[in-house]
């Protein structure tokens, strides 16, 4: 890596780790700008990746997206939607999220009939043990809290089409990401982009985001930051997000959108 002229990392923390490692293991001079070798200087910087607002705008205009928005709005009329889309592996924290949601339903009975979590889990074959654990939690939530008229958790074990994904982000009240370790999480950026209220009556939805994602260090504290292992705090964050006033939502949203539109 030190043969390069420039080494870029997603976030400052990763760049600092790299500089410390060079300094300790190779006993060479590392400054905040980079590493001085005998024959050249290696610039080390953080360059957070972002989304492409232009192409996303075009994708949102497609008729299929608008059709799905209508379908989802009709299906969940009067309900508050918490959405999530993650890979079902050990670092995305799907198990922790479901346990926190279960705690939320147990702790705040007044929200049981009004809230639906839609969790899309793009499954990977090698994590069968995790999939089995997650299935047990899903079954438990279903058997405890589902009624003839209401199902508080919709767990999809397959990915959805991009048009459905954009529709889901547009009609969501909250997006919840509980990764145990991750660089940038661009789902959160796409959610912010889709929450401008252009395509649905839902807008400025709060973002619940794990403090262990790179995105958390870029978004400047305007998200609701959580530690995925602290189920109690995650459950409280869901309640806070659902009860947040319009002014507070808009204030947070405008700050988040500034970041997303700047880091493209």
From TrEMBL:
Kindly provide the name given to this protein in its UniProt entry. Answer: Trehalose-6-P synthase/phosphatase complex subunit
Species of origin reads Cryomyces antarcticus
Q: What is the lineage of its organism?
A: Eukaryota, Fungi, Dikarya, Ascomycota, Pezizomycotina
């Amino acid at each position: 890596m030190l043969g390069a002229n420039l080494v870029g990392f997603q976030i400052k923390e990763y760049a600092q780790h790299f500089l410390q490692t060079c300094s300790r293991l190779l006993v060479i001079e590392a400054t905040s700008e980079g590493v001085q070798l005998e024959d050249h200087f290696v610039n080390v910087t953080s360059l957070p990746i972002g989304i492409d607002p232009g192409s996303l705008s075009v994708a949102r205009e497609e008729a299929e997206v608008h059709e799905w928005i209508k379908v989802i709005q009709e299906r969940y009329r009067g309900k508050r939607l918490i959405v999530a889309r993650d890979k079902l592996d050990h670092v995305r924290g799907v198990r922790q999220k479901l346990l926190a949601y279960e705690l939320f339903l147990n702790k705040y009975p007044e929200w049981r009939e009004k809230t639906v979590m839609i969790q899309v889990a793009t499954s990977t074959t090698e994590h069968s043990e995790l999939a089995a654990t997650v299935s047990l939690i899903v079954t438990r939530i279903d058997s405890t809290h589902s009624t003839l008229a209401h199902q508080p958790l919709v767990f999809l074990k397959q990915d959805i089409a991009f048009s459905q994904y954009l529709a889901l982000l547009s009609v969501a009240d909250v997006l919840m990401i509980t990764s145990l370790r991750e660089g940038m999480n661009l789902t959160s950026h796409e959610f912010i982009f889709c929450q401008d209220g252009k395509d649905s009556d839902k807008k400025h939805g709060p973002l619940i985001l794990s403090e262990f994602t790179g995105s958390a260090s870029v978004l400047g504290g305007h998200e609701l930051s959580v530690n995925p292992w602290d189920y109690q705090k995650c459950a409280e964050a869901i309640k806070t997000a659902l009860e947040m006033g319009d002014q507070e939502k808009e204030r947070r949203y405008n700050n988040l959108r500034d970041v997303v539109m700047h880091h493209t």
